[in-house]
Each structure stands twice: as C-alpha cells, then as structure tokens.
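your task:
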Amino acid sequence: MTDREQAPSWVINPHVPSVARMYDYYLGGKDNFAADREAAEQVLSIMPYVREFTRDNRAFLSRSVRLIADAGVRQFLDIGSGLPTRENVHQVAQQSAPDSRVVYVDNDPIVLAHGRALLAENPLTTVVQADLREPKAILDHPEVAARIDFGQPVAVLLLAVLHFVPDDDEAASIVARLRERLAPGSYLVISHGHAGRVSKEDEILVTSTYKATKTGNLTPRTADQILAYFEGLQLLKPGLVPVEAWRPEYEDVKPNWDRAGFLGGVGHLT
C-alpha cells in the first residue's frame, strides 16, 4: 500500500452482509459468510432468478471486454470490481492481448485482499482501494497513473455498481467526471439494476435487504435514466438491453424487459 493510499474505510465484519460477498454467493463462490448467505437467500426468496441474471451480467462483462480488446484497446479500469471469480477482466483482456493493462478498483477490504493475492505475480494488473463516489481520487491514484495513460483509449467498466449510488444527480455526475477524462477511441461499459415490472412491494423488500449492508441503498433506474449515462458516446448495437441479450453467443436469446435484472450497454467515444 502506498503512502497516498488510504486504509479501507471499514474492516471485514463477517456479521454484516457485504454486497461483494453476496454477489459471490449468487455466482456460486465460496468467499462469503453466513450473514452474506442469509441476506442473499432473503433476496432469492423474493426473486429466485437473481442467480441467473447475476451470471448473465458476468457473461456480459466477458463479451464486452473481449470485443474491446479485439478492437485494439489495451487499458481497462474496472470500478467496483467485486471479488475475483471466473473470467475476470484481466484474464479475458490478456487472453486477447497479453499486453493489456488492468486496474481493479473497490473499497471492500476482502476484495482488496483476494485481488492482491491473485495478482501478486501479474505486473500489468493491480487492485486499488478507492470509492466510486470519488472519481477524481480514482483517476489521480498513483497506481492507476502507473498503468493507465488517459491520453490513450481506455475502457472504463461500471458493472452493477451505479445502482448503489441512490442520488440520481450524484450518479450522473460520477459518470460525467469519468467520461470527461477519456480520450477518443475509449469505451464506457455499464450495467445497472432495472426493476422491470416487479411489484413495488417486492422491490421494497429487496432494497431493504441491501440497506443492511455496508454499501447501503440499492436504487434501480429506468432505461431512460441509464441511457443518459452514455451522453456524448456512440452506443454500440444493440443499444441498452437486458444483459443476456447484449450480443449473446446464441442468436435465440430474447430480452426479458419485464423481469427485474441488469440493463447493459457499451458506449464508444469517437
């Protein structure tokens, strides 16, 4: 940890659910505690398909990173990266282009511990402690500066993270401040919680479960609100869609707009 890097804003508490560890549980991982599993099961009791759309979101990440790496981008900044799992950004990007540089950003101490252990022998990839709500601190972080040249194209990834910023104006400001540092040829990848046509009662039950976590409020947004994050960018086809329908491997995938889940899109700065 560098002198300029702050200590994590909270310590690992196995008795308080963590969003990152709940997500790990949805994906079938083992880096979670009883409190995480209990909270995740509460969500699953209301929306049993959460595991499915969480895996769909992970697959969307892989497809978008592979497309961007194949397009020639060699820098990736993954903000709110969560716990390492299969097909992490650096693995997908470096499979396409071994010289790809990747910086993971998270503020959960367990993510930092696992990420640093995994990446100890990968000089092109690192994980730093910083908060999504402080984009300038992320962009100016010395370890980010050591690997990311913002004068060249970079892919900024914001997957399943902006919905934990409850204030609409703040969320929009975060994206705008990140976007304004991007060079032509850069990409912005976003997935975001979307309530679909789930009942208001069920939405409240799910969001109340997330309020018990350190991250706090979960705020689903409409397609129009999420689309606004791509202002000034060329939105790649098929646009903003349920993540399972974003350039799927199989042609017969049909988007389910009624079900709660993640909407995803990829913007290109031309």
Q: What stands out?
A: DSSP finds ten helices and eight strands in the chain.
